[in-house]
C-alpha cells in the first residue's frame, strides 16, 4: 500500500495536479510507450496494443480550496472551495497552504460555540463562517500568502487490518487501481490509454478534453462511490457496502453505463470469481459522463471503489475491494478485443 499512501498524502487540488502527474509517470515509466500532457494538465499514458482504443480515466485532483482573502488586521485567511464539501466535516481540521515560498500548516477555525446565540447553534455551519488560522502575525501572513494559493486538508494515510483510510481516496484510489491493473495485465487486448485527468471535482473538465483527444471506442472511469453501510441507513439506501467487491456502475447523475460494457464486466468477474456488486448512484458523477460525450460518442462504464465518508479526511475503503477492482480492470485490459458493443 506504499503507492496508495503516497498518492493519498500528496497535494493536488483542481488545476494544480502536478504532484500526482509525477507519481504516475514514475510508476509507469518503462511499461507504457509514451506520455503526453495536454494544455489542461491531463497526463495521458499510451501503451500500444491490438484491438479497440480504450481510455481508462482516473482523476488526479482532490477537493480543496484557494486563498480568497487575507484579513488586514488579523491575518486570518478566507477560503474559496474547489469542489463540494459537507461543511460540518471541516471544522477544526488542519490544512496546508501551499505558497511560492513553501508550505504553511494552519487550522480551520470558526466562531466558538460558547459565544454563539441560541439561534446560531441551531444552524448548520456555512463555508463563509470558516477561516484558516496560520498562527502568524497579519503582516507575516500578507508577506507570505497570495490570493490564489492552493490549500489542502492535512491527514495521514493509515492502513488498518482490513481497510485503509485517509484523505483524497477520491480519487487517488482510482489512480492506484489503474496503475496496478496496467502492471498486472499479462497482455494488452486493446490500444490502451490511461489518463490521469484534471479538474473532475469542478466539472469533469479534464476528461472532456482527454476523450476528444484520444477518440476512444471504449471509456472506463475509475472512481470511488458511496458505501452507506452505516447505522441509520436503510437497505435500499446503501448504494454499496465495504468488502463486497468492486462496484460496476449502472447509472449516476452524469452517465448511464453502456449495457454491453456492463454485461462484459459482469461476465469477466463471474468467470474469474472476482467479487462485485451493482451500483446505482442517485447523485454525483464520474469522468465517464464526459468521456461518453466525446466526438460522436463513446461506450463508457465506471468501475467504482465502495468508500465510506466520501469527501472527508477519513475516507475508508476495504483492501479486498481494491484487489477486486484491480483484478477486474486487468482482466478487461486483457480481453477488451472481444467485447460486444452492439446495442439491441
Question: What distinguishing features does this structure have?
Answer:
single chain, 344 residues, alpha+beta, Aminopeptidase, Elongation Factor Tu (Ef-tu), domain 3, 2 domains, eleven-stranded mixed β-sheet, six-stranded antiparallel β-sheet, 9 helices, 17 strands
Can you describe what's shown?
The protein is α+β, with helices and mostly antiparallel strands and 344 residues long. It is 26% helix and 28% strand. It contains 9 helices and 17 strands. Strands 1, 2, 3, 10, 11, 12, 13, 14, 15, 16 and 17 form an 11-stranded mixed sheet that branches. Strands 5-4-9-6-7-8 form a 6-stranded antiparallel sheet. A hairpin with a 6-residue loop joins strand 16 and strand 17 (315-318). The longest helix is centred in the last third of the chain and has 17 residues, at 319-335.
CATH class of the largest domain: Alpha Beta
What fold name goes in the CATH topology slot of the largest domain?
Aminopeptidase
Tell me the helix content.
25-40%
Task: Report the radius of gyration as a whole number of Å.
Answer: 21 Å
Do you know the CATH architecture of the largest domain?
A: 3-Layer(aba) Sandwich
Give a short account of the largest sheet: 11 strands, mixed
Mean pLDDT: 95
How many β-strands, per DSSP?
17
Gap between N and C termini, in Å?
A: 42 Å
Structural class call reads alpha+beta
CATH superfamily of the largest domain: Zn peptidases
Taken from the alpha-carbon principal axes, the silhouette is globular
pLDDT < 50 stretches = none
Count of runs of 4 or more consecutive helical residues: 9
Strand content of the residues, in percent?
Answer: 25-35%
Amino acid at each position: 500500500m506504499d503507492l496508495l499512501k503516497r498518492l493519498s498524502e500528496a497535494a493536488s487540488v483542481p488545476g494544480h495536479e502536478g504532484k500526482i502527474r509525477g507519481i504516475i509517470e514514475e510508476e509507469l515509466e518503462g511499461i507504457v510507450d509514451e506520455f503526453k500532457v495536454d494544455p489542461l494538465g491531463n497526463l495521458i499514458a499510451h501503451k500500444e496494443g491490438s484491438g479497440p482504443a480504450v481510455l481508462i480515466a482516473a482523476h488526479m485532483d482532490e477537493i480543496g480550496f484557494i486563498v480568497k482573502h487575507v484579513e488586514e488586521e488579523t491575518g486570518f485567511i478566507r477560503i474559496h472551495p474547489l469542489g463540494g464539501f459537507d461543511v460540518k466535516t471541516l471544522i477544526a481540521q488542519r490544512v496546508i497552504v501551499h505558497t511560492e515560498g513553501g508550505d504553511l500548516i494552519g487550522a480551520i477555525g470558526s466562531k466558538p460555540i460558547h459565544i454563539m446565540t441560541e439561534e446560531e447553534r441551531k444552524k448548520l455551519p456555512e463555508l463563509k463562517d470558516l477561516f484558516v488560522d496560520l498562527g502568524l502575525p497579519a503582516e507575516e501572513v500578507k508577506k507570505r500568502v497570495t490570493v490564489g494559493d492552493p490549500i489542502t486538508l492535512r491527514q495521514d494515510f493509515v492502513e488498518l487490518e482490513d481497510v485503509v483510510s485517509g484523505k483524497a481516496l477520491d480519487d487517488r484510489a482510482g489512480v492506484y487501481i489503474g496503475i496496478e491493473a496496467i502492471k498486472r495485465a499479462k497482455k494488452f487486448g486493446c490500444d490502451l490509454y490511461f489518463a490521469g485527468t484534471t479538474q473532475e471535482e469542478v466539472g469533469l473538465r479534464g476528461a472532456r478534453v482527454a476523450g476528444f483527444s484520444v477518440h476512444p471506442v471504449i471509456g472506463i472511469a475509475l472512481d470511488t462511490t458511496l458505501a452507506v453501510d452505516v447505522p441509520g441507513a436503510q437497505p435500499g439506501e446503501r448504494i454499496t457496502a465495504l468488502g463486497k467487491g468492486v462496484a460496476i456502475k449502472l447509472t449516476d447523475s452524469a452517465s448511464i453505463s453502456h449495457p454491453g460494457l456492463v454485461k462484459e464486466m459482469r461476465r469477466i468477474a463471474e468467470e474469474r470469481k472476482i467479487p462485485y456488486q451493482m451500483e446505482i448512484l442517485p447523485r454525483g458523477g464520474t469522468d465517464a459522463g464526459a468521456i461518453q460525450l466525446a466526438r460522436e460518442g463513446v461506450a463508457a462504464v465506471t468501475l467504482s471503489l465502495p468508500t465510506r465518508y466520501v469527501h472527508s479526511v477519513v475516507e475508508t475503503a476495504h483492501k479486498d475491494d481494491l484487489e477486486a477492482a484491480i483484478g477486474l480492470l486487468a482482466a478487461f485490459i486483457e480481453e477488451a478485443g472481444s467485447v460486444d458493443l452492439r446495442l439491441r
